[in-house]
Specification:
The complex is a heterodimer of chains A (about 190) and B (about 600). By secondary structure, chain A is of the alpha+beta class. Chain A has 3 helices and 10 strands. Chain B has 24 helices and 5 strands. Classes of the chains: A alpha+beta (about 190), B mainly alpha (about 600). At the A-B interface, helix 1, strand 7, strand 8 and strand 10 of A face helix 14 and helix 17 of B.
């Protein structure tokens, strides 16, 4: 192998391995308590998982999740009110229901629930739910769930995985934020 | 039972498991010899022997099941009769590789010791009764039902839903090891653990074709430390069998490329392809990679036809059985929920294939590799040094990529479905180690170390919960109580009172995961479909109950009596009438509820 090719291979190995190990640790970070200490880091994190029992909820709690049926008024689970940077994400709602009929109405909101970003109706057979989302930069992403069936549905966890950042939107968000700072009356 | 008693039981399971493993390897070696494949003792031969042994055992059990002869007694008699054959062909010589351990370089020995540690931890984990979802939902209950019905049948309507139509080789192998005691999952878990170990061993054998021992062990660790392999090794799932059959196909095709008995090796690869297809529906996505491998072996298109043809021939009876039962070769497993986000939002598979797949496959490819084992991302780098690569290394990397690409065609992207690609991609990492300079080698070993620390800690964390029961410090009942008392889906009789209440009676049962059911029972959904049909009156229902000797109705959380009655083909008014024939006799702390039928 020529020296130039060998050098290229070496550099690629180091860079690719560094990136992949970093991503790997990031994806499996929820199981490592010392990982992700700050909010800034949270918004950069590639994967975040929230246990249903840790989120604001109504309905019956158990060791494995939160169970609700349509007799529970409004949204039985809401949260995590997390910061999100603009990008393409995969949302996973880990849950189960014994029926194949429609059991969940899901809303993604921001601005303390004022802005509804997306609505989803989910059948029991579609759980655990995996869907992909194009999200803007948000200060407080809320995912709220309402039970729509007489058959109970159990939610165990919600995971948000970043597939890729939207560089253009991040740039636009940054410019907009700077504009707000400079044009805001003191 | 605690302490020494439980420990004695665990040791008994291990001895029995070792006997089964020896039988499997012996049957496999005898088959290889019958096919005039006299291989020198090696890791490759050991892996091929066990994979072949499981294939033969699975097909024999399948045949018995189709003939309605799959009784525990016959299985045990056949197993005992096979012992002399197995002892004669036991693979002791193949284990001789362990004697070479002291001659390995320090790095290789360190990796090998680490892997042995991980294998020990997961072995202990496998000694704890299985409480995972799919195993208690259908992998193990299927095996129990085969033994109870003495047959392999497709129940078009049951609590198993689409799982009832998936091919059943792993479940047949579980039926084999459940024959001595159908209520204990341990031998099934230990079989799956062995499949995981042999997946790693097969990776080593594959990587040794392109690398020295340290590079091959690096590849082995990349696979054995993969995120899904650790927990799967402790359960009775199907995925590690799929991984083992896939790596065995690769080894057989490699042997075909360089041995004088290439034609018979191609035949063996075809047989193993059948085992792969008979283990998981999603294995069909790997057929292009297998076809490419079959061609690569001897550059003969006829070999592709033989391998794929034999594979399809082996699996055909299963799909014919599903077809004759349901009117469709895939049964409900081919059902596509319209607009279901779980299936990527496509209107049907073709829509998903054309519209959705091109937009997601690249991110899926990278994502699953990162989640599974980050070193695998490096497997493509040797392609930059194409001229330095041996033809074997080139083919392994290219076929690995095609296999991984095949995985992206799963509408539901679950990382464990992609295990067949890992050994091939890991061989790419071993190639990089071989052609790389000292900096690259040091970087790869450092990368493995960074990967190993959190992975090992996660495996220890997962297994830690299971150590007390595995080592006899906690009884199996206490362990299951601790694990299942608040589980919504898995039947668990916390107070062990239901058998006393039912006596000699039979329960009509509505529970999702039925492996730990401790009374004679009939699945409600299956019964409603097969015994009652589209509609019935209360009197017809009661008569059907009497004919099936049903004395009680039993349901677990999250089901209710209303959801139970809703499964019967009764009008709303008749459901109310039937309710008057039911008397609540027991409800356990975890809402396991028993209703007695009264006149």
């Amino acid at each position: 192998m020529s020296p130039a090719r060998s050098l290229l291979l070496t550099l690629l190995t180091i860079v690719l391995l560094g990136w992949s190990l970093w991503s790997y640790l990031d994806r499996h970070a929820p199981t490592l308590s010392w990982w992700k200490p700050t909010t800034v880091w949270q918004s950069l994190a590639a994967s975040r998982t929230w246990l249903a029992t840790d989120l604001p909820h109504q309905g019956a709690g158990s060791g494995t999740g939160i169970t609700a049926e349509r007799t529970v008024p409004g949204f039985f689970l809401s949260g995590p009110y997390a910061p999100v940077l603009a990008g393409w994400y995969r949302l996973e709602i880990d849950g189960t229901s014994p029926t194949s009929e429609r059991v969940l109405h899901v809303q993604l909101t921001s601005d303390q629930g004022e802005t509804i970003l997306r609505k989803l109706d989910v059948n029991g057979s579609a759980l655990p739910l995996v869907t992909e989302l194009d999200l803007p930069t948000l200060a407080d992403l809320e995912i709220r769930l309402a039970a729509t069936s007489a058959t109970p549905v159990t939610i165990e966890a919600i995971t948000l995985r970043r597939i890729e950042f939207s560089q253009r939107r991040l740039r636009d968000d940054l410019i907009a934020q700077l504009q707000r700072w400079f044009t805001q009356p003191s | 039972m605690t302490g020494l008693g439980t420990l004695g039981v665990q040791v008994t399971w291990l001895v029995l498991a070792a006997l089964y493993w020896m039988l499997t390897a012996g049957v496999g070696l005898a088959t290889l010899r019958a096919l005039r494949l006299r291989l020198a003792p090696s890791v490759t031969r050991l892996v091929l022997a066990v994979a072949t042994g499981w294939t033969v055992a699975g097909l024999v059990l399948f045949g018995l099941g189709l003939a309605g002869l799959l009784s525990r007694e016959l299985i045990l008699v056949l197993t005992i009769l096979t012992i002399p054959l197995a002892v004669h062909h036991a693979p002791w010589e193949d284990l001789g590789i362990l004697r070479r351990f002291p001659q390995l370089p320090t790095a290789a020995r360190t990796i090998a010791v680490g892997l042995a540690g991980v294998a020990t931890i997961t072995l202990l984990g496998a000694l704890a009764p299985d409480v995972e979802f799919d195993s208690t939902w259908y992998h193990l209950p299927d095996a129990q039902r085969f033994l109870a019905e003495h047959a392999v049948r497709v129940h078009a309507q049951s609590i198993q839903d689409i799982a009832a139509f998936l091919p059943k080789l792993p479940e047949l192998l579980f039926a084999w090891v459940l024959a001595p005691n159908p209520t204990s999952p341990t031998l099934a878990q230990l079989s799956h653990w062995l499949a995981g170990g042999l997946l790693a061993a097969g990776t080593y054998a594959l990587a040794r074709r392109v690398s020295q021992p340290t590079g091959a062990l690096l590849a082995t660790a990349t696979v054995y430390l993969a995120h899904s392999v650790g927990w799967l090794s402790q359960t009775a799932y199907a995925d590690l069998f799929v991984g083992l059959f896939a790596v065995s196909i690769a080894l057989a095709l490699l042997k075909a490329s360089d041995s004088s008995h290439g034609r018979n090796m191609i035949g063996l690869a075809g047989l193993l392809t059948g085992a792969l297809l008979l283990s998981k529906l999603q294995a069909i996505f790997f057929l292009p990679a297998i076809a490419l491998g079959a061609f690569a072996a001897r550059q003969r298109w006829q070999d592709v036809v033989v391998v794929l043809g034999l594979g399809l021939l082996v699996v055909a009876p299963w799909y014919i059985l599903v077809w004759t039962t349901t009117g469709s070769p895939l049964g409900l497993a081919g059902y596509w929920p319209p607009g279901d986000v779980h299936y990527g939002g496509g209107a049907n598979f073709l829509d998903w294939l054309i519209r959705i797949h091109p937009t997601v496959f690249a991110s899926r490819l990278v994502q699953v590799l990162l989640e599974t084992s980050p070193l695998l991302v490096l497997s493509v780098l040797p392609l930059l040094a194409w001229k330095q690569l041996s033809p074997t290394a080139r083919w392994l990397i290219v076929i690995g990529l095609v296999t991984q690409l095949g995985w992206t065609y799963n509408p539901v992207p679950v990382d464990r479905y992609g295990l067949p690609a890992l050994p091939l991609l890991a061989a790419g990492v071993a190639t990089l180690y071989t052609i790389g300079n000292r900096v690259i080698r040091a970087t790869l070993l450092l990368g493995l170390l960074v990967l190993a620390v959190p992975r090992a800690s996660l495996i220890v964390q997962a297994a830690h919960d299971r150590f007390p029961v595995a080592l006899g410090a906690e009884s199996r009942t206490a362990y299951l109580d601790r694990q299942l008392h608040d589980n919504l889906w898995i039947y668990w009789d916390t107070e062990q009172r239901v058998p006393k209440i039912l006596g000699n009676g039979t329960a009509l049962l509505l529970t999702h995961n039925s492996f730990y059911v401790n009374v004679r029972s009939i699945d409600l959904i299956q019964f409603a479909h097969e015994a009652l049909g589209e509609s019935a009156t209360v009197n017809e229902v009661l008569a059907a109950f009497a004919e099936a000797k049903i004395t009680h109705l039993v349901h677990t959380r999250p089901f209710t009596l209303e959801s139970f009655l809703g499964e019967l083909p009764l009008s709303a008014a008749d459901q109310v009438t039937l309710r008057t024939h039911l008397r609540l006799v027991y409800q356990s702390p975890n809402h396991l509820t028993v209703w007695e039928l009264v006149p």
